[in-house]
Amino acid sequence: MEKSPKHRLADRVLWALGRASQQSHRLVRQHMTTAGIRTLHYHVLASLADDGEGAQATLADRIGLDRSDLVTLLDELEEQKFLARRVDPADRRRKIVAITPAGQRQLEVMDRLIYAAEADLLKPLTAAEQKTLLSLLSRLAPDS
Questions:
Q1: How large is the C-alpha radius of gyration of the chain?
Q2: Which CATH number covers residue 55?
Q3: What is the spatial distance between Cα 1 and Cα 51, in angstroms, rounded to a whole number?
Q4: For a Cys staple, 103 with which of 54, 64, 82, 130, CB 3.0–4.6 Å?
Q5: Locate the HTH marR-type domain: which residues (predicted)?
Q6: Reduced to 3 states, what is the DSSP secondary structure of residue 71?
């Protein structure tokens, strides 16, 4: 069997970062799916835990989701008791969304799944190489 040629950008950092990013997303999806968890649920719960409660529209903007798509996710998470919605007393047309203690526990489970996916991704690297990679990536994206 003939070996396929390398991609024209295979020696470029942006290409390698993109491929590594694709692999990391695939591994996270794989770990989450195996556990019966939707990855989009993680984004909602993590935003509520990290940035605090907020209006549904604000939450949609924070995580970059269409507002109508977010409602479906919120319905699912509320049904599982991972979040609670209440009417905003300042504007009764708005709903405020907050993570619940059960949602916080679920988020911790999800975090562990992400850590496992990261461990799978980084298996080829030594501990020192992993530390160097994180340091270099942090310098490229200082806001993260």
A1: 19
A2: 1.10.10.10
A3: 52
A4: 82
A5: 10-142
A6: helix
pLDDT, residue 77, reads 97
For residue 95, the cross-strand partners are 87
Please name the residue that has the structure tokens 């409660």: 53
Q: What is the pLDDT of residue 142?
A: 81
Cα–Cα dist 42/76, whole Å: 12
Q: How far apart are CA 44 and CA 8, in angstroms?
A: 37
The helix/strand/coil state of 67 is: helix
Which pLDDT does position 11 carry in this prediction? Answer: 83
Please, are residues 92 and 100 in contact by the beta-carbon 8 Å criterion?
Answer: no
CA gap 84, 100 in Å, rounded:
7
> 29: closest CA among 106, 102, 120?
120
Domain-located, residue 10: no
Q: How far is CA 36 from CA 31, 65, 97, in A?
A: 9, 21, 23
Which stretches of the chain score pLDDT less than 50?
none
Q: Total domain count for the chain?
A: 1
In a domain, 3, yes or no: no
Residue 137 lies inside a defined structural domain of this protein: no
The reply to whether 134 falls in a domain is: no
DSSP state of 53: -
- Domain extent, residue 61, equals 17-120
